[in-house]
Q: What sequence folds into this?
């Protein structure tokens, strides 16, 4: 406590970055707010309490360089001279303690600096924040890789659940006025095969989408005492979905810092989904990451040991009279069909959903004739189905993508046939 006649200890602040990007009057405002300012690491005998970095814009390589060690002390705050709506979110995801873009209100900046210093100096919160920021930085680095958009979202959900010690985390795509929400990725769901939520049963989601505010709801759907927090995901002034977050029973409360970081990263994931939708003409990616990974492994093994390998696409038609608008019925049909396929296959075989109502089957050590026999056995268990088969070795196949191109063409030929309806890649 500061007694009468004593002056409060001045907070030590290190100014870095581009001097030309500093807002007018910055140094004067910081001094009046009680900061002792230095512009080099050795400017003061003691280490700074915070680092303020000013940048002209949110160029990713420059931002990554500045925030390379952001998880270490002291907290780093970024100020962008440009009016960039995405810059602060990118900085937070890379580990900044706080970030602002022009126009900057200097009293607000000073208050944020003091708040970030107080937060970092609270020992109980430091391990959690460091764990979260490490997780977010790792995800942002991987998001730069050529991954499927839904794989980026899956990484988000898994890392977010681990970083925040959540018992449940899900990313649900929905917009204002929708009756259903599509689950893109989920961690901790006892019913992981569900792909849609009936929003009539989840009024808290509709309210979060409408109000654009995070809501905490008692765990009526979870069967636990932990509340579920619904965080709206806003992109370009439009709600694109929600994050559903549930803590552990022993530590159910999520703080404002945790929610803000989750929201900023969810926004990056929504942007990845939007970009993927534009690349694919609005349709979801056909091959999921698990399928691509397994096919690559089997193709490398087949090449190394001179073995055969077949990829099958099986298009199973819904039973007659099925209502196309009955999404729950379609999901149930897909689950039942997937179960039947798995029961009919060998242990080394692999099956995965592929697009809308189709299945991809990887058959190791199986040539085209063996794959055809497998399809015929499956046809005995299923309703009407068409199939395409692509086998390795094949002169046109060197990568998994080559197999996908061949098997999709074979499936189109199979659909056009009568009788057996099985196309085989030439």
A:
């Amino acid at each position: 406590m500061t007694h009468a006649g004593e002056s409060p200890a001045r907070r030590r602040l290190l100014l870095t970055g581009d001097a030309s990007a500093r807002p007018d009057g910055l140094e004067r405002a910081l001094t009046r707010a009680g900061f002792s300012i230095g512009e080099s690491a050795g400017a003061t005998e003691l280490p700074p309490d915070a680092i303020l970095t000013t940048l002209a814009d949110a160029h990713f390589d420059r931002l990554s360089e500045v925030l390379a060690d952001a998880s270490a002390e002291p907290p780093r705050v970024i100020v962008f001279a440009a009016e960039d709506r995405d810059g602060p979110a990118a900085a937070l995801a890379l580990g900044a303690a706080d970030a602002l873009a022009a126009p900057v209100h200097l009293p607000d900046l000073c208050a944020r600096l003091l708040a970030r210093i107080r937060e970092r100096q609270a020992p109980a919160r430091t391990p959690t924040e460091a764990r979260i920021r490490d997780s977010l930085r790792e995800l942002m680095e991987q998001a730069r890789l050529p991954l499927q958009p839904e794989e980026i979202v899956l990484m988000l959900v898994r890392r977010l659940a681990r970083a925040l010690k959540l018992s449940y985390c899900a990313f649900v795509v929905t917009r204002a006025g929708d009756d259903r929400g599509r689950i893109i990725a989920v961690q901790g769901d006892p019913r992981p095969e569900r792909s849609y939520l009936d929003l009539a049963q989840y009024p808290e989601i509709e309210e979060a989408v409408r109000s654009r505010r995070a809501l905490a709801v008692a765990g009526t759907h979870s069967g636990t005492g932990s509340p579920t927090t619904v965080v709206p995901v806003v992109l370009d002034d439009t709600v694109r979905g929600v994050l559903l977050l549930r803590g552990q029973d022993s530590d159910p409360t999520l703080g404002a810092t945790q929610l803000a970081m989750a929201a900023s990263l969810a926004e990056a994931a929504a942007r990845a989904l939007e970009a993927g939708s534009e690349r694919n003409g609005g349709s979801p990616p056909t091959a999921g990451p698990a399928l691509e990974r397994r096919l690559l492994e089997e193709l490398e093994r087949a090449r190394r040991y001179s073995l055969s390998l077949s990829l099958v696409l099986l298009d199973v038609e819904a039973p007659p009279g099925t209502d196309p608008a009955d999404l729950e019925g379609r999901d149930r049909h897909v689950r039942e069909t997937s179960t039947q396929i798995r029961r009919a296959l060998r242990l080394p075989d692999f099956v995965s959903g592929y697009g809308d109502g189709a299945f991809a089957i990887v058959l190791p050590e199986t040539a085209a004739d063996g794959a055809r026999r497998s399809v015929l056995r499956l046809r005995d268990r299923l309703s009407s189905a068409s199939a395409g088969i692509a086998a390795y070795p094949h002169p046109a196949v060197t990568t998994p993508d080559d197999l996908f191109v061949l098997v999709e063409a074979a499936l189109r030929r199979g659909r056009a046939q009568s009788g057996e309806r099985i196309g085989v890649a030439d």
Observations:
- The radius of gyration is 27 Å.
- The longest helix spans residues 256-279.
- The first strand starts at residue 11 and ends at 17.
- Residues 1-8, 141-147, 278-286 have pLDDT under 50 and may be disordered.
